[in-house]
Amino acid sequence: MQRSERLIRLTQLLVERPLQALSLAHLSEAWDIAKSSLSEDVATIRKTLAEAQRGIVETSVGAQGGVRFHSGVPMDEARQFLDGLAHKLSKPDRVLPGDFVYLSDVLGDPHVLDTVGRLVSMQYTNKGINVVVTVETKGITLAAATARHLNVPIAIVRRDQRVTEGPTISTHYVSGSTRRIQTMSLGKRTIPPDARALIVDDFMRAGATARAVEHLLKEFSATVVGTAVFMATSQPTHKMVNDYFALLRVHEVSEQGVHVEPATLIDIQNG
Amino acid sequence: MQRSERLIRLTQLLVERPLQALSLAHLSEAWDIAKSSLSEDVATIRKTLAEAQRGIVETSVGAQGGVRFHSGVPMDEARQFLDGLAHKLSKPDRVLPGDFVYLSDVLGDPHVLDTVGRLVSMQYTNKGINVVVTVETKGITLAAATARHLNVPIAIVRRDQRVTEGPTISTHYVSGSTRRIQTMSLGKRTIPPDARALIVDDFMRAGATARAVEHLLKEFSATVVGTAVFMATSQPTHKMVNDYFALLRVHEVSEQGVHVEPATLIDIQNG
Questions:
Q1: Residue among A5, A45, A137 minimizing CB distance to B48
Q2: I need a labelling partner for A214 at 20 to 30 A (CA). Which of A50, A162, A243, B192 fits?
Q3: How far apart are CA A34 and CA A72, in angstroms?
Q4: What is the complex's ipTM, to 2 decimals?
Q5: Does the keyword Transcription apply (chains A, B) (predicted)?
Q6: DSSP code at position A266
Q7: Residues B219, B162, A208, CA angle at the centre, nearest 5°?
Q8: Where are the domains of chain B?
Q9: CATH number for the domain running over B75-262
């Protein structure tokens, strides 16, 4: 196998499965290539992607060792992406009755989903997250995209109880918008032992839903590492969860339009 | 920029965004590299990935021309993946009351989701699909993974009506399992004009849900290109939809266990 082929194959294997450890020892056997050559190839890929701000290639040693790829987005591209989204979502025809903002099209757009997944995963990398938790329905696509870049499973909290979830744990909470008592349930088998969970959702106003998920996860003895939402309202300023990250912040929803602002991102690639 | 760097950057750009056209003219300017060199690089990537059965690099000419990547899975790996899933899902502890099979863990596993997305997209490539439609809740993760590899948006049919969807079209149908009248609704803005839809869902017994989605999509004047499900039951053999593809087929669900068989795949990479 020529060097050019190895670079192509290695790049594909790394970027297609973010955070999945690739064993060079195993590849060295499968491809019949000296491990030292593969290590040099990996170094070239690491340098090239780092310079382009397109992700971090990390090598860990030891029995569980291997090469892993952290997905990245160049900071100028990320800012451009969020500015573009903020502009698009600020249009008056997005305002729905009750001061909601229409998001279903962007939450179904494959490029938006993938980029949001990258950006959120970048904010929570190396925090030992082993499950992404969301609430049906609108947050699921975002949560799945984030879980892909964090290489962890996704668990979906349901508002009803279905036989298909197997045994569940249920809790109740008072909805922030309707002030009614709601039920949440989560399949017992979907949360790993010693779970470190990232909550992902589409929209946060007061944070009642996110706090309810936190309470539900306590029943699983899980640690909540953080909450990431696609869009949060600026009012109320005090949310019911402490630690949350919002990609977009929305001010003043009215029939004249919406004012949406992009978040400040942590630049892990130059951090 | 050296050739090795170009191969790495091009491979990443192609595989990270399946079916997104990459303009070599644009890259030639941005990277200050002769377009002929980039074309040679693309030819090397095409050959390498084709030989490894890891996707197809396609070049189209003309004003809208560019280079696109069709995600692939080597056939032996695909068969191994489906055999492994069938084995895992055949265990007696998967059987739920009512002869349902517990699937939530696999439908939340990032590797399963990505591989299923690849396999389903491979079966429906080049069919002009411009939207993937699913029904909340369990099918959403699969549908999103498939939509990513087809590079099309996902639209989610809901069983309730929410203000956040904007104007919706609703239809009614009789559920296959409960025999009760159910409502389905879909946001008017989520289906493009001249839609060619692929329906993706987790489970099919008689096909009542899939047929209901077909009927709902008729109200949008959409063409249904096909229906893909993760798992279908062998009984009843006659389903309420004509054209469907199931990755796994389940026979004889009982307390002793389940018998799950993998599907036969179309090998587009050697077709």
A1: A5
A2: A162
A3: 29
A4: 0.96
A5: yes
A6: P
A7: 160
A8: 3-70, 75-262
A9: 3.40.50.2020
Nearest CB to A108 within list B9, B136, B190? B190
SS3 state at B6: helix
Q: With an 8 Å Cβ cutoff, are B44 and A8 in contact?
A: yes
Of A16, A138, A148, the CB nearest to B15: A16
- C-alpha distance from B233 to closest chain A C-alpha (Å): 15
Q: Directed axis angle between helix B110-123 and helix B140-150, to 10°? A: 50
Residues with Cβ within 8 Å of A168's Cβ and at least 6 positions away in sequence, in order, are A158, A161, A185, A186, A187, A188
Cα A25–chain centre separation: 31
Q: What are phi and psi of B146, to 5 degrees?
A: -65, -45
pLDDT tens-digit readout, B92-133: 899 998 888 999 999 999 999 999 999 999 999 889 999 999
Q: Which residues are CB-contacts of A36 (< 8 A; sequence separation ≥ 6)?
A: none
Query: What's A158's DSSP letter?
Result: B
CA-CA distance, B257 to B269, in Å (whole number)?
A: 35
One fold for A3-70 and A75-262: no
Determine whether the interchain pair A164/B138 forms a contact, defined as Cβ–Cβ distance below 8 Å: yes
> Both tokens of residue A3?
């060097």
Yes or no, beta carbons of B5 and A54 under 8 Å apart: no
* Cα dihedral: B18, B20, B23, B24 (round 10): 10
* Tens digit of each residue's pLDDT (9 = 90 or more) over B198-225: 999 999 999 999 999 999 999 999 999 9
Name the closest residue on chain B to residue A47, using Cα atoms.
Answer: B5
End-to-end CA distance of chain B: 36
pLDDT at B269 over 70: no
- φ, ψ (nearest 5 deg) of residue A237: -65, -35
Closest CA of chain A from B158, distance in Å: 8
Distance from CA of A148 to the nearest CA of B (A): 5
**Cα distance between residue B178 and residue B168, in whole Å:** 25
For the whole model, what pTM was predicted?
0.96
User: What's the CATH code, domain A3-70?
Assistant: 1.10.10.10
A55-75 CB burial, b ≥16 within 10 A, e <16: bbbeeeeeeeebbbbbbbbee
